[in-house]
Amino acid sequence: MFEVFRKYLSSKANLSDADFERIKAVSVIKKLRKHQYLLQEGDVWRSNAFVAKGCLRRYQIDAKGQEHILTFATENWWIGDRDSLLTGNPAISNIDAIEDSEVVLINKENFDQLCQQLPTFNEFIQTILQKSFIASQNRIYATISYTAEEKYQNFISTRPELANRVPQHMIASYLGISAETLSRVRNQMTKK
Amino acid sequence: MFEVFRKYLSSKANLSDADFERIKAVSVIKKLRKHQYLLQEGDVWRSNAFVAKGCLRRYQIDAKGQEHILTFATENWWIGDRDSLLTGNPAISNIDAIEDSEVVLINKENFDQLCQQLPTFNEFIQTILQKSFIASQNRIYATISYTAEEKYQNFISTRPELANRVPQHMIASYLGISAETLSRVRNQMTKK
DNA sequence: GAAATAGCTTGATAAATGTCAAGATAATTC
DNA sequence: GAATTATCTTGACATTTATCAAGCTATTTC
Lengths: 192, 192
Fold this sequence. Notes:
The structure is a homodimer.
Chain A: H1 2-12, H2 17-26, E1 28-32, E2 37-39, E3 47-53, E4 55-61, E5 67-74, E6 78-79, H3 82-87, E7 94-97, E8 101-107, H4 108-117, H5 119-145, H6 148-158, H7 160-163, H8 168-175, H9 179-190
Antiparallel strand pairs in A: 1-8, 2-7, 3-6, 3-8, 4-5, 4-7
Helix pairs in contact in A: 4-5, 8-9
The structure holds a DNA duplex.
């Protein structure tokens, strides 16, 4: 599974074989069965996780016990709880596997060292953060300005790989609408 | 006005007098009257802007002509269009002054140089990006999971400096609810 | 300081979306 | 492969929020 990670890295940053070895030395492969937690609310998140295979979600549970999905991550995505990682506080979000998955974990200390030692690595990691932030802002725009149907349309075009991969009630949760509304919206769309 | 910026910087990063001089040399002060644009949709955004005085907002206009506010920035905040800055594409958002304001502008090239030359500067800029992203994710959670009243309550506690400073229809726009609903929510809250 | 504009509130009504319940089908588990 | 569980759909109805319109203040402009 490290090969998937290596292939991803080499497409993003110019790294030598020695660099790859250094990265490999601090990478930990973790296999997850469907429904298995990678992070549970209350625990501290101390790593960066790269998804080599499968699909995971990050979500928070509100006062009424409802889940709200913040992130989906499939192959070649990163996932984690940045808040907990940065502050060291217990996480308020959960991460679990939607499918049997494999992730590459690099703990914070090792990851920071890699960033310091490998400038190209650092650079593309920074770019990911930049792009993630921009995507996050775009999602806010969608959430505050779109109707339910527009939210779903936008989801299909921005995350096409997920539309037929994850259950629809999870897509609904991600979009902030009810599963029933999503079902009706989809029904309407086919009639057009 | 550079003094405000200097004071802010010195509270965030360990910088020498020479460093400050270097920063000052590439800083451009810009004064804005209320309602004046700092960035207009269609133009390319090429700087980082620090708010030394006043209050600005960043917003997008939807297909129906409605404004949706993405960001408020008061003293000691940064504002800009990261998407346009990163990609070089024309901005789809607008930035204008809600009050008479003064901003410190540093263009992209100079800013990147500062980051390369001043490690502590770079470090705290990265931290701001991290925290901004976390805040953005928290806002998504609020937007997809809270009722109108909860959104406003949350706004008051996360952005107390804005609650009595910007018009309420702008707060409503930021929260993704109508101005009338916000008015009613506020009315209800006083009765409790 | 009169006139114009912007901001806020309130009522009446409409529209969008949520909730609850039931049933159908598909997928998973033992 | 039978039983269980998860997923999706649909209907009926409730609730939340939006929209439209009017009026009232406060603020800004000339």
